[in-house]
Write a structure and sequence with these properties.
By secondary structure, the chain is of the alpha/beta class. The protein is built from ten helices and 18 strands. Helix 3 crosses helix 4 and helix 6 packs parallel to helix 7. The radius of gyration is 21 Å and the shape is globular. It starts with 8 loop residues before the first strand and ends with a strand.
């Protein structure tokens, strides 16, 4: 694609035309970047459960179709728009699905990791309200969560991109952009798990496993993985789980997971719900001891409520949650990139499948069946 700076590019993308439908891998047009934007050639993009939720749940109502999903990406800057000096063609980057302009009131406030440049409206379009993606017959295509990493090329505002070292493997570090920063950060940054504590992680997908990895690093003495898919128990042990529990196969006389944890463990210090299931959130919260902290990490369907006993709040248990592991996006990505480059963060265990873009629907099916930890879509370089 050399010599295409300032020109519209024709490339392949996986386009979702509506919930419940398979994606269509087809040729599209990608406009050149405007002022304050960059165009990126994507190299790797993980399939996140949040992408699956857009296809399979009512979260789809938050988006305009046709849609290009993918927010756990990595790539190389192809061209830059007018006035862009912080990035140059050839730079390696990770997209930020929460912008981080580092200038607005929210970015300057240590109590939040949101940014005023990121709104509900700009989840589908660029900050100026327009799109950079088009069908070959001239109809607009929109993007999800600001990134559109299931396209060979995407356009991002500079507030939503961080430059990374050019020596790293882009097919691996894409995972830092979502599952790793989310799972890891909620343990060390939000809950602040301490040594010798008892922890349970509900949901053993990539985010849950990143949480287990972080809990082990924090020195938790007991780390319990909770999932109905027992095929995930061996991989959870590799990440640091000391034991695993299937909620559908409890000991005789034990009706619920929270009852098991209360009676056998005296209540847990920290729990993490990494699925987006309201029943699991309730279980995770009610499994705590009097000073315990439950962190909601998964993405529940819109309009769902969690029925909890408010007396537990009065007696000291805490219920909280966050996006991006509570990190300011640039800070979180930089911290974990440094850990990866120093050999302290092993990403290989997360990647169970690598697929080409044309096989993306198979990747989603693997996630639905629970047969993958993380599938990475890899693009031709």
């Amino acid at each position: 694609m050399e010599g295409n700076a300032g020109k519209r590019i024709k490339c392949k993308a996986a386009v979702a035309y509506g919930p419940g439908q398979p994606m269509s891998v087809e040729d599209i047009y990608v406009d050149p970047p405007k002022a304050g934007e960059i165009r990126v050639k994507i190299v790797g993009s993980g399939i996140c459960r949040s992408d699956l939720h857009i296809l399979d749940t009512n979260i789809a109502n938050d988006f305009t179709f046709p849609l290009i999903m993918g927010h756990e990406g990595s790539g190389v800057v192809e061209s830059v728009g007018t006035g862009v000096t912080a990035f140059s063609p050839g730079d390696h980057i990770i997209p930020l699905w929460i912008p981080n302009c580092q200038k607005c009131d929210l970015c300057m406030n240590r109590k939040t990791n949101f940014c005023q440049t990121g709104t509900q409206e700009t989840m589908n379009v660029m900050p100026d309200g327009t799109t950079r993606f088009w069908t070959l017959d001239g109809k607009p295509i929109y993007k999800s969560i600001g990134c559109a990493a299931f396209s060979e090329y995407t356009v991002m505002p500079i507030e939503s991109v961080i430059a990374i070292d050019k020596s790293v493997d882009l097919e691996k570090v894409c995972l830092i952009g979502c599952c790793v920063v989310t799972g890891y950060g909620n343990v060390v940054n939000v809950a602040k798990v301490d040594r010798d504590s008892q922890v349970a992680v509900f949901g053993l997908g990539a985010i849950g496993l990143a949480a287990i990895m972080a809990a082990k690093e924090c020195g938790a003495r007991r780390i319990i993985g909770v999932d109905i898919n027992e095929d995930k128990f061996p991989i959870a042990a590799k990440f640091g789980a000391t034991e695993c529990v299937n909620p559908q196969k409890l000991p005789d006389g034990v009706a619920t997971v929270e009852q098991l944890f209360q009676s056998s463990y005296g209540g847990l210090d920290y729990t993490f719900e990494c699925v987006g299931n309201v029943r699991a959130i309730k279980s995770a919260f009610e499994s705590l001891n009097r000073w315990g902290v439950c962190v909601v990490v998964g993405l529940p369907p819109r309009g769902t409520d969690v029925p909890i006993n408010p007396w537990l709040l009065l007696t000291g248990q805490k219920l909280t949650g966050s996006f991006y592991g509570g990190y300011k996006p640039r800070e979180g990505i930089k911290y974990l990139m440094d850990k990866y480059m120093s050999g302290q963060l092993d990403l290989d265990l997360f990647v169970t499948n690598k697929l080409k873009l044309q096989d993306i629907n198979r990747g989603f099916d693997l996630m639905r069946k629970g047969e993958t930890i993380r599938t990475v879509i890899v693009f031709d370089k």
